[in-house]
Amino acid sequence: MSEITHLNPAALHTHPAFSQGVRVDGGSLIVVGGQNGTDATGAVVSDDLGEQTAQALRNVLAVLAEAGADQTGVAKLTVHLKAGGDVTAGYRAAAEVWGPHPTAITVLQVAGFARPEVLVEIEALAVAP
């Protein structure tokens, strides 16, 4: 059985939306490649960052489910956002879709993606029981 331990040392800032680090004991590693806000046909779902973020997270959850896992087993998320936009809608969508499962996270702003209409890409490292 795998176990995720959230690491939030007293010497570092504590935030309710993420952990400073995560230790994974046991289980199988799942690497979720970058997921965009696309539907099952590959079409981008909207030109809105919030809607794309919600869909990208649903896509991450679909990959995790295929491996027998869910967001409780995620050790780290990496979120790439197209630079210049207001990230508030993305954070709001993440809270709605992801729920209260803080994990280690890195958020980067990038110049753009291979598909110009894409506004966000999300990767995950997780462990399956």
Q: Could you please describe the fold and organization of this structure?
A:
The structure is a single chain. By secondary structure, this protein is of the alpha/beta class. It has one domain (32-128): 2-Layer Sandwich (60s Ribosomal Protein L30, Chain: A). The protein contains two helices and seven strands. The protein has a five-stranded mixed sheet with strand order 2-6-5-7-4. A two-stranded antiparallel sheet has the order 1-3. Helix 2 (88-98) links the parallel strand 5 and strand 6 (103-110). Helix 1 (49-66) runs parallel beside helix 2 (88-98).
In a few lines, what is going on in this structure?
The chain is built from 2 helices and 7 strands, in the order ββββαβαββ.
Descriptive terms for the model:
alpha/beta, 60s Ribosomal Protein L30, Chain: A, 129 residues, 2 helices, two-stranded antiparallel sheet
Give the helices and strands, then pairings:
Layout: E1 3-7, E2 18-19, E3 21-25, E4 28-35, H1 49-66, E5 74-82, H2 88-98, E6 103-110, E7 120-128
Parallel strand pairs: 2-6, 5-6
Antiparallel strand pairs: 1-3, 4-7, 5-7
Protein name: RidA family protein
Enzyme class: hydrolase
InterPro entries: RutC-like_sf, YjgF/YER057c/UK114
